[in-house]
């Protein structure tokens, strides 16, 4: 049964989208819950930091493999089947994690979770692009941002409290009922609205993308722990880069690619991708460097560290629907430039931290920075996706999600490396000065460690400020994608792909 897109645009399926929102929220919340629990898991299973990191690295690797393939899955299968499969995998992984008798079983459970959650974000974005006309997409994507940023806001604080009072397994116990509830809700209420085509899976493309994106993610994620000189780090990055180059060439030569790189012929989508990459690097820097300063330099407990970052994440979530409506009315340029100016200034002030910087001053500064970022990501991304024809939506959403994952991992690794190198350099200088003055003692060594770490964090924030300036310059070239008339869109879609091959299937 064919869905009337024009009629759906007049009355979007809000109830169905609420189901997808809830599933995405549960998946994102689960991902942010575990970070603070890693020390407790290390103690229970007697594993080293390099081993426990596999709980996050393994999750990222599966995301790196599944997200590029999501364009194929979204086109091949109905949104109902795909969501139910994804949510079932996620829930099975959650149940296995609760009862995991060994660390390897826990890692396996996390990877099963990731195989489900990786499909949810591209699927949700694609459903919204189909369900809403261009002039209403800003508000819709703003609500998506509310889900995407509120879950990470709740995660660390909730996790800190739970781990302080209960076992880390309780984190998965909390998530499991919500996973089951979402599946039952979807079974009765979810219907199909996305167009499907009879596409075939190119196995070689899937292998190349898995090795390419997976290699890059693993290599850059491991750099902070193993160092850039490790053969494992530069080896996996090299193999990943080579495989990715082969993957891109193959996609450009294929008539029906796994991930269509030809969407970059649309200038606003290409520009939006570059800005999103730059902003992902800047955003991840704050999410990593701020906890390092709060916990390692200031000695603040994890729960209080989570509370410090909570207002910023909540503000970012609450602002998303507002920025979405402003985007619908005025376009992306003014709001993104304003947001980037705020982000750049606040990031610069974060590079001026001291050993005695006030807790509430830091909270306010971090909140202002997140407020600025809330005005950039969704408007820029939505404007870029608006330029794509409907048949390219799955490729656009898959590309955006993949690039955010990869750029986040690369940005985190680079900024941590910059921090470490600066810390070593400053520490050596301070130790030399202390030795020359004959004042070197255990107390002095601790002071040197704190001062050198502070200098490394400040220097990394300064680099992050320059990265934000680069995004600001790029935003000057953003142009609003104007809304085409519905009949023109339909004509364009019929010319590019026969509508018969794009009919959603009603089960």
From TrEMBL:
<feature type="transmembrane region" description="Helical">
    <location>
        <begin position="82"/>
        <end position="100"/>
    </location>
</feature>
<dbReference type="InterPro" id="IPR011701">
    <property type="entry name" value="MFS"/>
</dbReference>
<feature type="transmembrane region" description="Helical">
    <location>
        <begin position="459"/>
        <end position="478"/>
    </location>
</feature>
<feature type="domain" description="Major facilitator superfamily (MFS) profile">
    <location>
        <begin position="16"/>
        <end position="483"/>
    </location>
</feature>
<feature type="transmembrane region" description="Helical">
    <location>
        <begin position="168"/>
        <end position="187"/>
    </location>
</feature>
<feature type="transmembrane region" description="Helical">
    <location>
        <begin position="300"/>
        <end position="322"/>
    </location>
</feature>
<dbReference type="InterPro" id="IPR004638">
    <property type="entry name" value="EmrB-like"/>
</dbReference>
<feature type="transmembrane region" description="Helical">
    <location>
        <begin position="54"/>
        <end position="75"/>
    </location>
</feature>
<keyword id="KW-0813">Transport</keyword>
<feature type="transmembrane region" description="Helical">
    <location>
        <begin position="232"/>
        <end position="249"/>
    </location>
</feature>
<feature type="region of interest" description="Disordered">
    <location>
        <begin position="487"/>
        <end position="507"/>
    </location>
</feature>
<comment type="similarity">
    <text>Belongs to the major facilitator superfamily. EmrB family.</text>
</comment>
<feature type="transmembrane region" description="Helical">
    <location>
        <begin position="112"/>
        <end position="132"/>
    </location>
</feature>
<protein>
    <submittedName>
        <fullName>DHA2 family efflux MFS transporter permease subunit</fullName>
    </submittedName>
</protein>
<feature type="transmembrane region" description="Helical">
    <location>
        <begin position="12"/>
        <end position="34"/>
    </location>
</feature>
<keyword id="KW-1133">Transmembrane helix</keyword>
<feature type="transmembrane region" description="Helical">
    <location>
        <begin position="139"/>
        <end position="162"/>
    </location>
</feature>
<keyword id="KW-0812">Transmembrane</keyword>
<feature type="transmembrane region" description="Helical">
    <location>
        <begin position="199"/>
        <end position="220"/>
    </location>
</feature>
<keyword id="KW-0472">Membrane</keyword>
<dbReference type="InterPro" id="IPR036259">
    <property type="entry name" value="MFS_trans_sf"/>
</dbReference>
<feature type="transmembrane region" description="Helical">
    <location>
        <begin position="269"/>
        <end position="294"/>
    </location>
</feature>
<dbReference type="InterPro" id="IPR020846">
    <property type="entry name" value="MFS_dom"/>
</dbReference>
<keyword id="KW-1003">Cell membrane</keyword>
<feature type="transmembrane region" description="Helical">
    <location>
        <begin position="357"/>
        <end position="381"/>
    </location>
</feature>
<dbReference type="Pfam" id="PF07690">
    <property type="entry name" value="MFS_1"/>
</dbReference>
